[in-house]
Amino acid sequence: MSLCTSSPYRRRQDVEARSGHSSDNEDYEGSSSPFNITSTKNAPIERLKRWRQAALVLNASRRFRYTLDLKKEEEKKQIIRKIRAHAQAIRAAELFKEAGERVNVLGTPKSPSILNGDYTIGPEQLALMTRDHDLSALQQYGGVKGLAALLKTNHEKGIYGDDEELLKRRNAFGSNTYPQKKGRTFWMFLWEAWQDLTLIILMIAAVASLALGIKTEGIKKGWYDGGSIAFAVLLVIFVTAISDYRQSLQFQNLNEEKRNIHVQVIRGGRRVEVSIFDLVVGDVVLLNIGDQVPADGVLISGHSLAIDESSMTGESKIVHKDSKAPFFMSGCKVADGSGTMLVTSVGINTEWGLLMASISEDTGEETPLQVRLNGVATFIGIVGLLVAFVVLVVLLVRYFTGHTKNSSGTGIFTAGKTSVSDAIDAAIKIVTVAVTIVVVAVPEGLPLAVTLTLAYSMRKMMADKALVRRLSACETMGSATTICSDKTGTLTLNQMTVVAAYVGGKKIDPPDSSSLLSPILSSLLFEGIAQNTNGSVFTPEGDGEVELSGSPTERAILDWGVKLGMNFEAVRSNTKIIHVFPFNSEKKRGGVALQLPDSQVHIHWKGAAEIVLGSCTRYIDADGRVVPMDEDKVMFFKSTIEDMATSSLRCVSLAYRPDELENVPTDEEQLAHWVLPEDDLVLLAIVGLKDPCRPGVKDAVRLCQIAGVKVRMVTGDNPQTAKAIALECGILNSEEDVGEPNIIEGRVFRALSDEQRKEIADSISVMGRSSPNDKLLLVQALRKRGHVVAVTGDGTNDAPALHESDIGLAMGIQGTEVAKESSDIIILDDNFSSVVKVVRWGRSVYANIQKFIQFQLTVNVAALIINVVSAVSSGDVPLNAVQLLWVNLIMDTLGALALATEPPTDHLMHRPPVGRREPLITNIMWRNLLIQALYQVSVLLVLNFQGRSLLGLKQDSSDHANKVKNTLIFNAFVFCQIFNEFNARKPDEINVFKGITRNRLFMGIVGLTIVLQIIIIEFLGKFASTVRLNWKQWLVSIAIGFMSWPLAVIGKLIPVPETPFHKFLTRRFHQ
């Protein structure tokens, strides 16, 4: 078995190993706080453990549900190790077999002993052969052609592929799916919601209160106190479980999308793209560099085909595939070359299927915002616990010392007179209030609001043609300061057409005018177009339209050839391919060696115009004669290329050279490593391909620039072509910007030192003739400058840059599977406008979380202060356990749903990117929060202490007056939160109603909260310890809440310093 050591894939791995993730490591090392993780991409496991251990958590199973399950991750690694050990054992046995001197007696082809429906071979035999890499079994079946016959497949044209045949094959050999572990049911989420420590304590308190109440007051009246708390707790649990279950369904749907890879197969002689799940045994699959091997199979034909089997074997060896090593394992990646494969096993009959069925894919992943919010929640929780403890101690001391008085002014507890059951009941009520304060104070919903807004954003981003692979990429995109974008297909339409052609040493106009070509030149040109390609031409029977396949560049050149009169099938059948050098993004060209019927050898090259031209010493003129290329002709061709490039055309040269058959290696091993001669070429043609800019791309680039995000074009194209497109797209504003370092060639940037690259990285707007490694160097230089870098990529060699960047954006249409796996987000339509939409959504995630923080902290501060001051001063609290649980529901679950699902607005793109180390609570938020909290606390405390006189309740009995006063305080407090929810929508804008009709969920939740509040006050008085209010008292409650609107407008006119509040405090402290 041979190893391919010179593949681009191998170089990619070397670069990855060499570069490491220095910038990420610096992020982790430089901070002392366990919650200060600016990037969770490639975060060390120990660091992830640290913040979990530091977090104050009431319900760990719920709080850490959407983070990486470290225990499951270790179990998964052990399963993978076992399966890899099995694969390595097979490899060892195979090598041992090769090394032995045993002679295989190959008699007549082996007759399969099992009948499998219409097929004379069964899935078990096929699985055993491919799993054990049993070459002798394959030879006994008659090789790949004999195996194809057994599977009733044409090894060139594939299966017919109608629905009946596909069904028959699935019934005989199984489908290309594997059993997946079922997702969590609603009841599991309900059980998890129960696990909250405070809710368990409240349920115990409710049961004790229920038992004492029934004992002392009888079943008719005694169940109210305990029953109402139990009902409130159950309501919180059910609402929480429903919300969490809905989120999990969204994540499941997105995971299905991630797994749905598309592959190219040949069915009925035609190339078609099918889902990996629709693949069947007998299919002929086309494999190209960067593809994932979709099933187990056997090699039909290949050119420089090398497979990275590390995902199965654990060894980072690139294995060359040929007749000696023809077996493919599902789940591996094509590292180099191209070829075709016959599918022999699918689904659970493959090693990959077994692996996937035995491990549950953990989609959990903490995001930087989630970690930071756990830090905020922990700090607030500690304060809340201290406050609850103070309230508990104060209330217990006041009660048992007789300082807690009833409505008539006499002490409730008298030593020796108050019964034990009354004392225990009072103590339970006090403990219940203290525990409920903890429920309100510890914002369990704060970190989970991130998951909620991410789940919502991911679902909406799918509609905007962006598939999120890593949760953290959503929010990191909001901090992006620069986007390094490809040109072809991202900024342009990727719809290539040949609009200019220079053949025979002169321009032919129109470019498809075949009458201007000599027969010799036509023959050589057609040979190079038809054979030196990964594309194909399918001509249906009758007068059907010709179907072209391949990359847009390949399709354009094939289309040009067909228009010139090329018969694709005839040309391909007339010559035999000896060896292929696949297109290489480093060398910018690809070649093929052909053997002609008269044993002549032609080596054809195709690639970047000026690079191929540089290897040419001759050209064929209009009469078909080979003419030496003098200095004038070289200058003519160079100026031709420059003129076409300046007109934003992609320039491609086609050239060839004759060779002798004796120069071609005869040994298969040597042929696989043969380097095609690339000097002394004869120029055949130079073509200019037009790829128009995408509609709207100029507006998208301008929007990025307004938003403080610099767009840079990184392309393998000619710098002149890149410059023309950059001017057209608005990346370059005028001709004044076109000098270095604004425009730079990859080789120039590559030659600079690390320090020099870092110095000029900021200035670069366009990089032409860049290699994937140049893109990686640019990303590293920009990150060292402190940029948050988003990178687009589609090729296998783009993987290191995608991996190294803060946000890797792979192209969904042109992108290889290797590029997609290295990315964080897949742009499904390859459109730059979709990249800009991702930036909007990223900023929206951050803005929505800030809205929710402002809203929740206002409730926290107000509720805590009101209850603490009341408890210390009067020994009673105006907001009881049931009321606080309802406030907690408004604040945590319903508040998160309303505010975390705000759609993005254009306003978000008129502000600079959010720095990853900027405080979560900005000065603007502090201003809004403190104004609202102070207002609520002031008004409600005044009502608490002076409410009887202010509300005209002096004539009422003390007990009734207190109940009305406390009900009004509760009602006003809830309405304050409802009105403040509108304020939280726009923390820095005066008009808080802008775009409110677009968020129906927000309107629905506000409406539901108001309806439920009316029901609680008017109909559930015994449960919530409230009394009915008259219309004047309702108006007072609403007026108190309404005042938060004008107050917010006045507050927003107060300027705030730019220096973050916490830095100001730190500076004052050090002074």
Automatic annotation (TrEMBL):
The main enzyme category here is translocase
The way this protein sits in the membrane is described as: Multi-pass membrane protein
Give me the stretches of Polar residues compositional bias.
Answer: 30-39
Q: Does the keyword Protein biosynthesis apply?
A: no
Question: Residues in domain Cation-transporting P-type ATPase N-terminal?
Answer: 140-214
Q: Name one GO cellular component term.
A: plasma membrane
Q: Which residues form a coiled coil?
A: none
Could you tell me which PROSITE patterns the record lists for this protein? ATPASE_E1_E2
- InterPro entries per record: ATPase_P-typ_cation-transptr_C (IPR006068), ATPase_P-typ_cation-transptr_N (IPR004014), ATPase_P-typ_cyto_dom_N (IPR023299), ATPase_P-typ_P_site (IPR018303), ATPase_P-typ_TM_dom_sf (IPR023298), ATPase_P-typ_transduc_dom_A_sf (IPR008250), ATPase_P-type_domA (IPR059000), Ca_ATPase_N_dom (IPR024750)
**Which molecular-function annotations from GO does this UniProt entry contain?**
ATP binding; ATP hydrolysis activity; calmodulin binding; metal ion binding; P-type calcium transporter activity
- Where does this chain mainly localize? membrane
**Stretches that traverse the bilayer:** 197-214, 226-245, 376-400, 430-456, 1001-1021, 1033-1054
- Keyword Ion transport assigned to the entry: answer is yes
Q: What is its EC number?
A: 7.2.2.10
Per UniProt, the ranges with Basic and acidic residues bias are: 11-24
Q: Where is this region: Disordered?
A: 1-39
* Catalytic reaction list: Ca(2+)(in) + ATP + H2O = Ca(2+)(out) + ADP + phosphate + H(+)
UniProt KW keywords: ATP-binding, Calcium, Calcium transport, Calmodulin-binding, Ion transport, Magnesium, Membrane, Metal-binding, Nucleotide-binding, Translocase, Transmembrane, Transmembrane helix, Transport
List where in the cell it is found: Endomembrane system; Membrane
PANTHER family in UniProt: CALCIUM-TRANSPORTING ATPASE, CATION TRANSPORTING ATPASE
Q: What's its job? A: Catalyzes the hydrolysis of ATP coupled with the transport of calcium.
What's the family?
Answer: Belongs to the cation transport ATPase (P-type) (TC 3.A.3) family. Type IIB subfamily.
* Name the UniProt record assigns to this protein: Calcium-transporting ATPase
**Organism source for this protein?**
Liquidambar formosana (Formosan gum)
